[in-house]
Amino acid sequence: MSLAAILLGWFDVHGRRHLPTYQENDPYAIWVGEVLLQQTQLSRGLAYRQRFLATFPDLATLAQASEDAVQAVCAGIGYYGRIHRLHQAARQLRAQGGLPRDFAGWLEVPGVGRTTAAAIAVQAHGERQVVLDGNIQRLMARFHALDEPSHSAKGRAALWRLAEAHLPAVRLRDYTQALMDFGATWCLPRAPRCADCPLQAHCAARLRGAVAAYPVRIGKQPRKEQTMRLLLVYNEAGAVWLEPRPEPGIWAGLWSLPGQEHAQGQLAQELNDAPPRWQLRHLLTHRMLHIEVRVLHHRMRDASHPARWPGSTQGRWCDPTQLEVGVPAPIARILACWQEEPYAHGPLHQAEQGGPGVGQAAHGRTAGSENL
User: Fold this and answer.
1) Would the pLDDT of 22 be above 70?
2) Which of 34, 243, 270, 292 is catalytic?
């Protein structure tokens, strides 16, 4: 019996037909789901998908939305570059007249790779294409005991060939979903369910007694460490100063607390001498961020007309309880802690100045340090 026949039989009993992504036929909704589920836990990705489609139900709505509005809906999801690319692609497609109608057209969309284009083409257009996400790569590498590293160019090319060779003539949509479901729930990265696997009689890795050795991996590079020193600047109105992160870079396009490098002169020295109010670690794909946050009080002449914070050339005062811009998950955590006990340790104080400089500053009570 072929791989496809075995997996289709398994899918008829164990498949996740209840998932909204399986039931979807709209290419726009499929595209959004494919993007939001990349590198994201299924339950979280589906929740963001539901929120995103409720806010931007079609291509026109998304194309007309501001960058801040789009990022705000996706705040906390991580890997924010994909959200930016999705939004920019939507604007481009809207200007070109609408969504592509086949696999070749989707491959031309910025930010859409072969697997995403194939997933849309299979599910929305009924095309016969190969989908090769991480779950399917692992399944194919074990089934064939592929000795090439799956992330190498040679290994990836081999996986595409092997996956294409297994495509059935019928039920392409069910087969594609069966591959993803089987990889996600049965052929797991750790502790795969080999004892009751319907493929065990045909799986080369299982027959070799070496399932744990596949997929073959290239040695991991050591994760980089990076320290980020931020300022939580607030005013009498209770607003916090946020500014957009530059592109490219970490959290590009999102809004964040300003960096401590904005401080100058005496204030810079005082900030360096003061312990951080909060310290937290945040894991990114290839680096570990060590974030230190110090608090600065910006005194305004007139709280009803808040001036710009002179320490930054761009940004704006934002109500931390009703954010209308997207912020990264660590910044959201910091703002939540700030709302719970904003003055517990006393901030540094900064008087408003007329010139471009930061101005003189004086200590309040010594800031304590908390680990988030």
Assistant:
1) yes
2) 34
